[in-house]
Amino acid sequence: MESEKNAEHETHMHLAKTEGHLAIWGNITLAAFKFFVGFFTGSLAVVADAWHTLSDSLSSVILLVGLKISEKPADAEHPFGHGRAELITAVIIGMMLAGVGVEFTRSGIEKIIAHETVTFGWLGYSAMISTIIIKEAMAQYAFWAAKKTGMTSLRADGYHHRSDALSSLVILIGMIATNLFGSTLLWWMDGALGTLVGIMLLRVAWTVLRDAGNKLLGEAVPAEMKTQIREIARRVSGNDDLRLHHIHLHAYGAHREITFHIRLAPETTLLEAHRCGSEIEKAIFDELGIDATIHIEPLKT
Hints:
Layout: H1 2-41, H2 44-70, H3 85-113, H4 122-149, H5 152-181, H6 189-217, H7 223-237, E1 243-252, E2 255-264, H8 270-288, E3 291-298
Helix pairs in contact: 1-2, 1-4, 2-3, 2-5, 2-6, 3-5, 3-6, 4-5, 5-6, 7-8
């Protein structure tokens, strides 16, 4: 069973690293193209979107560093391993998103105040359409990998890709509107789009930081997991009325530990109680992949 768990962990790490490497090179290529288009057209929205894409590359680098740290085995100072490094990575990604979002919002407002306008051409269309298609594909892969591995940092990276695709879609709509109705009428469009991209980033940053923060602080055990634990314990013990309470889950990346109390009849011998607890712990690990620690109490009559 331990070898199967190690093999599954290796598969998860391979998926995560593949996502990180694909994201880095894909984002660098897209960012370079959008920087060229932004400077050529003078569009703040396109340049801001290029920075957004480049920040995706930086977040993917941080993701890979976090994964490397989380692979380190448990030691004397970190008895539960280094799995929470990927949560810290997600926090860093969220803070990066927030910083970029604030800067885009500020720059967009300044451009509106200055009454600056931009005329978009086919280069702008090609940059945005390419970004929408490629970044949504990257987001789908990141979300799939996050579902397979359970890694919060991968889901955070997926949100980052998705936000880039959405911001590019918004900019594309603005380009079309500006070219249809004229830059004289819609002189404010580029600044407004830059501001909107910033606000979208701030919203995504909040989601990423909230999810990672909740896991770092500790979350309640899901109701479905509680039901599974109770069913396993009652089946293994042969006692349909076995009472469980004080169920607490401790997550360290892919490594999870659960603790709870069970009550056994007062006349149960120490040997029988130990056997019962050990068998339940083994069944939970075999079926759910969670290390369990059980505190045994006498049943009050």
